[in-house]
Amino acid sequence: MSKPISRYPVPKLEDLPQDIREKMLAVQGKAGFIPNVFVTLAHRPDEFRAFFAYHDALMLRDSGLTKAEREMIVVATSGVNHCPYCVIAHGAILRIYAKNPYVADEVAIDHHKADISERQQAMLDFAVKLARTPESIAESDRAKLKQQGFSEEDIWDIGGITALFALSNRMAHLIEMRANDEFYLLGRVQTAKK
Amino acid sequence: MSKPISRYPVPKLEDLPQDIREKMLAVQGKAGFIPNVFVTLAHRPDEFRAFFAYHDALMLRDSGLTKAEREMIVVATSGVNHCPYCVIAHGAILRIYAKNPYVADEVAIDHHKADISERQQAMLDFAVKLARTPESIAESDRAKLKQQGFSEEDIWDIGGITALFALSNRMAHLIEMRANDEFYLLGRVQTAKK
Amino acid sequence: MSKPISRYPVPKLEDLPQDIREKMLAVQGKAGFIPNVFVTLAHRPDEFRAFFAYHDALMLRDSGLTKAEREMIVVATSGVNHCPYCVIAHGAILRIYAKNPYVADEVAIDHHKADISERQQAMLDFAVKLARTPESIAESDRAKLKQQGFSEEDIWDIGGITALFALSNRMAHLIEMRANDEFYLLGRVQTAKK
Amino acid sequence: MSKPISRYPVPKLEDLPQDIREKMLAVQGKAGFIPNVFVTLAHRPDEFRAFFAYHDALMLRDSGLTKAEREMIVVATSGVNHCPYCVIAHGAILRIYAKNPYVADEVAIDHHKADISERQQAMLDFAVKLARTPESIAESDRAKLKQQGFSEEDIWDIGGITALFALSNRMAHLIEMRANDEFYLLGRVQTAKK
Amino acid sequence: MSKPISRYPVPKLEDLPQDIREKMLAVQGKAGFIPNVFVTLAHRPDEFRAFFAYHDALMLRDSGLTKAEREMIVVATSGVNHCPYCVIAHGAILRIYAKNPYVADEVAIDHHKADISERQQAMLDFAVKLARTPESIAESDRAKLKQQGFSEEDIWDIGGITALFALSNRMAHLIEMRANDEFYLLGRVQTAKK
Amino acid sequence: MSKPISRYPVPKLEDLPQDIREKMLAVQGKAGFIPNVFVTLAHRPDEFRAFFAYHDALMLRDSGLTKAEREMIVVATSGVNHCPYCVIAHGAILRIYAKNPYVADEVAIDHHKADISERQQAMLDFAVKLARTPESIAESDRAKLKQQGFSEEDIWDIGGITALFALSNRMAHLIEMRANDEFYLLGRVQTAKK
Q: Which residues in chain E (54-83) have CB-CB distances under 8 A to chain A?
């Protein structure tokens, strides 16, 4: 790939504050590479810290949503926001969590046609609506979620993840963040081999 | 007003973690009341902390944008997102920073017609476009900002504030956050008396 | 404010036809100032007369809608049409008629979240839909109004006011009409003091 | 045709106020029939009078626009507003004024492809933009009109006609006004025979 | 008319392959003239053959839809796609099949207000939705068609015709195809004389 | 995958007309499997024949566009039409023709950010505009293509492919066509191994 991973300067690992460097090394140890969202956002350490604190608060908390469902929200809303980094990177994470090599592309292109449960359809209907026209969320939209068994706290989770990636998609478009090559294939081959 | 300030439980001050309670008391000391965004988001302390850390990172940093300009971005993008809390609360803050009782309503309704500088028009054009159709930001949009003297770091600030309030507007719509009565009049009377 | 109140020549009071001058002096006697819509539209006396004849026919007639409700329609539809003059001037009139310093900003920004009755919500849903996509009004939209007790004549009033301000908003955008400074504060202080 | 010409009561000629009846008889004498806009709007005499006063003020005044050009604006903006009455009735009038049996259908469907002058293209670009998204009219739109030789007063005419038919299209949608059968064929046969 | 019927070269009848020339002479024998869609698309003989094969497969097959209903779909979807050739040419064919001089203009401008059956309204609702936002067709849309008695094969016909004219409208816009003068009057005079 | 590949009956290979069966066996011999577009469209043999005749006329002809570029058009326009079958199947074909495991996902999500040439950007800008709002194509859009060296015949190819997949996307949404599992991985692994 010839395009840079960000329009902004990308700091070297050794020039970063200790806490940020450690966070990166931890993710590298786990994933085998450092996702570009870490290295590109590190250009602004305070915003970096706040972003990942927000991310972890929503994505790692105990929730009525599985981790695969949370990634589905990220992929579906990033899809309607046409955000390459978030669709490609979180598509990979979704494939891994869902142990399903097909679902990420389906959800990114058109969640209505995806091979997912009715409950997940309702969840993504709500998320996509909040993502693109936040003012249009109405009582009837909440009612559809409750009919599928989502609690008020689950609805906060759905909305909160959508809101965080509304921020994230805009930052990625702003700096023209590019996805690591590794993400394109992750979760496709192993599962497909089964 | 008969509607509650949030669809979710609003914690009592005494039940909150120490750091959050202190942050609230500090803002109360300064403003004379606690803006509802503090008490309503405190329902989720970790998200509260991340939100205000992000907010302060962008709104309090040294920047090529004045504080009034940063609030203009909040008001204009919250206007196109039809977010009552953010328009009303940040409209008040904008009136105070700009020492101008008219500009907030103008910017909220239609920034193109507002009595602001060409540079500020360009800034809000960019912000509003990123707010509603993030995928549509192109090189030509950045070029217009640079023609007005904005640096690359200023552009990050404009985009970052827009992105943060993309999150904030969605949270406010999600929980149906309402503005404190105090905000409606703030910055209108004193300045108008001059 | 440095911007002119219209892109077109603004006639002097003494140069106007007798009937138009008298209409202006009457409103000045009542309001304490002449709203800019009078002085700017007077550039074309025949259109001025027709506009205010239409206005008075709808806004002063006996109707199933209160005067506050009629102003709500003006504010909500002018809000979605992003018309500064109409939102600011009629927002002031709405505050006065409704004896409520909050409702105008709420209705202008997002009527769905405003602290108004279900009946008024339905009225504004219909008005806003007719304002932006007139072709989309269907039998089901009229049915919702009738469920809230609106008669066929009330529906004509709702639609007629929306139609008149569709005209008015376009004229205001066309000539870049600006609101008088007085409107920004009208109906805010007195009521808030109660 | 089985559908009524209005959802509202249509007054009998003999029950109407003298001035309105005379206006109708005059148009009948000239056209050979009474266009439905007269009989349907007569349900509300005051609004009727104001509407036709506004209409005549714009459509009959001395102007830099020919009468055919004014009707083009009506047809093009009513086309994008999907208003059957206005497209069909004013399409007929346009065919007659322009002595051209093709131009009305072309302008109603897509004015960009119509066989009209560059000047008229610019005029309709402005009108259609003001008709659907009034807030989007900018200095650059006015500049394009001036490049085609339109004066500031001509621009008011273009905008004023657009604004009036924004009102008219909404009234026609509201009451489901239907066009007289006569309009469908008017201006097609005679000219085609040449 | 001064504009050419296509932006691309229009082949002479004698230069065309035998099968294409024969197809044109056949339609000329029947209609009295060769519709411009034949002469303009003949610039690319292979695409010409495929287009008319597709057209005949859908428009001439045994179907639960009458030929007038199939033309209604063409006119309604070409109307929302603002395609002059298809609205004008197929409007004429619709008038002839339906033996109704009014229905084509009504359907082209706003099918919701047209004087057609409830079944036909449902058919056009589906077609217009598929035409403009194909991704939005949902189970509930199919259910509405079935409630009106349409079979699954009928739904394929409705969708297939819509899809074919999605192609056709784009080709017509691409090459700026113009309608023959004859179409404007076809089916208007004879029927009107009855 | 539990969802069927079409809402309509899928004919057995042995029940198909000879020419269609042979076409399928040919593609199976080449690709190793029969893409679902063949088996699902075969429900209507005449439409099947016309569709593939059209497809081959555009996709196999000598052209100023490479085969990879033609597939880019399919992927980009199917992306904005949210069509799972076409994005996934043609994404695979694009990866193979372009010998590039990344480009298909990039083009499907947001072609503006994709790592492609300026010429290809212009080509996709035109295609995507024609795909979603065919009426908006103007002389200035054609001029941009010519500046990048595209000939008039190339522009017909770009528009023709866009038009054909406007049809194809609508058929796929109509019958809820699903992509073969094989497509998800095709062109990813081999190239990535280089």
A: none
pLDDT along chain E (194 residues), means of 10: 89 96 96 97 98 98 97 98 98 98 98 97 98 97 98 98 98 98 91 43
Provide the token pair at C18.
Answer: 């007798």
Q: Does E167 touch chain F (CB under 8 A)?
A: yes
pLDDT score recorded for residue E190: 56
pLDDT tens-place string over residues D126-154: 999 999 999 999 999 999 999 999 999 99
Rounded to whole angstroms, the Cα distance separating F83 from F90 reads 11
Residue of B181, B175, B176 lying closest to B32 (CA atoms): B181
- The predicted pLDDT at position F163 comes to 98
The C-alpha atoms of residue D100 and residue D108 are separated, in whole angstroms, by: 14
Whether E contacts B, i.e. 3 or more CB pairs less than 8 A apart, is no
Distances (CA, A) of D28 to A84, D13, D24, D39: 64, 12, 6, 11
Contact of A140 with chain C, judged by CB distance below 8 Å, is answered with: no
The rounded distance, in Å, linking the Cα atoms of E132 and E130 is 6
Interchain pair F109, A188: CB under 8 A: no
Residue A192 has pLDDT above 50, yes or no: no
Give the model's pLDDT for residue C192: 44
With beta carbons under 8 A apart, name residues in chain F contacting D110: 135
In tens, the pLDDT along C44-56 reads: 999 999 999 999 9
Residue A2's pLDDT band, with cuts at 50, 70 and 90, is: confident
Distance from CA of E177 to the nearest CA of A (A): 33
Q: Nearest-CA distance from F162 to chain D in Å? A: 20
| Chain A residue at shortest CA distance from F172 | A113
Distance between CA atoms of residues F115 and C150, nearest Å = 58
Which candidate, A170, A43, F141, C84, places its Cα nearest to that of B163? A170
Count CB-CB contacts under 10 A for residue B52: 18
Q: Which residues of A102-123 are buried (b: 16+ CB within 10 A; e: fewer)?
A: bbbbbbbbbbbbbebeeebbbb
pLDDT at F193: 43
- The crossing angle, in degrees rounded to 10, of helices B103-110 and B84-98 is 140
CA distance F175 to D27: 54
B194 touches chain C (CB under 8 A): no
Asked if C167 and C53 touch (Cβ cutoff 8 Å), the reply is no
CB burial string C58-70: b at 16+ within 10 A, e below? bbeeebebeebbb
Task: Read off the pLDDT of each residue in F53-74 and give the average, rounded to a whole number.
Answer: 98
- Cα–Cα distance measured from residue B168 to residue B58, given in angstroms and rounded to the nearest whole number: 14
ipTM score for this prediction: 0.96
- Please state, rounded to an integer, the average pLDDT across all residues of chain C: 96
Q: What is the pLDDT of residue E192?
A: 44
What confidence score (pLDDT) does residue C190 get? 56
pLDDT digits (tens, 9 = 90+) for A114-169: 999 999 999 999 999 999 999 999 999 999 999 999 999 999 999 999 999 999 99
Q: Are B and A close enough to touch, i.e. 3+ CB pairs under 8 angstroms? A: yes
Q: State the Cα torsion E53-E56-E62-E67 to the nearest 10°.
A: 160
Exposure class string for D30-47: b at 16+ Cβ within 10 A, else e: ebeebbbbbbbbbbbeeb
Q: Within 13 Å, how many C-alpha atoms sit on residue F143's CB side?
A: 3
Our measurement of the distance from residue F116's CA atom to the centroid of its chain's CA atoms, rounded to an integer in Å, reads 18
The C-alpha of F69 sits at a distance from chain E's nearest C-alpha, in angstroms, of 19
Taking contacts as CB-CB distances below 8 angstroms, the residues of chain B near F76 are none
CA A87 from centre of chain: 7
Would you call E179 helix, strand, or coil by DSSP? coil
pLDDT of residue B156 exceeding 50, the answer is yes
